[in-house]
Amino acid sequence: MSDDSREIRDEGDWIIRDEAALRAIFGEADGGAARKSIPFLDKHCRTFIGLAPFLCLGTFGADGRADVSPRGDQPGFVQILDDRTLAIPDRPGNNRLDSLTNIVGNPQVGMIFLIPGFEDTLRVNGKAVLTRDPALLRTMAVNNREPRVAIKVAVEEAFLHCAKAFKRSRLWDPTAQVDRKTMPSLVRMIMEQIAEAENRAQPPQLDDALVTSYECEVEEDYRKNLY
Question: Percent of the chain beyond pLDDT 90?
């Protein structure tokens, strides 16, 4: 298998290749699970989105490559324009533009909304466009800073999701929190990954002073450029 091909190796009869084979294992959805999807944002969806300070945005590029990006701000940052349309401000980031580039090439998006303390989640799927509508962007300003673009989503499907994943993971349980010191800083990990990828022959040797300098730059960026 070439480096350019990331397909999973053929494992013969162990690979599930179509929905019929999948359903033979799990059966069909029934009851509320089969019927809960709605093609609009009802009062419960609107309330949920209004309380959610965080969502994960799934996108797919024109080449089919998938990506998931976190989006967060104060509750209510995602605007509900009507019962079939919502808008997400694009706050300053690292300019990789993975999600935005994907949307330009393929409008299909999937979102999952989270509320701190809620083990239930809300899933919304639809088609997105990027807009520079000045009237909309003005309503999304924080500290007099408007986003450069907004992600406008035409809702095709919305449904509430049960709490099993959160109960298994204990995500909101304070006793399950992991000490951040368990792993190196974000800056150190990224620098080590870059160094290893660029020089695989030997383990990366980083200058601690340089790492500390970059860590300070990141903290300063957080302080000045969240909006």
Answer: 85
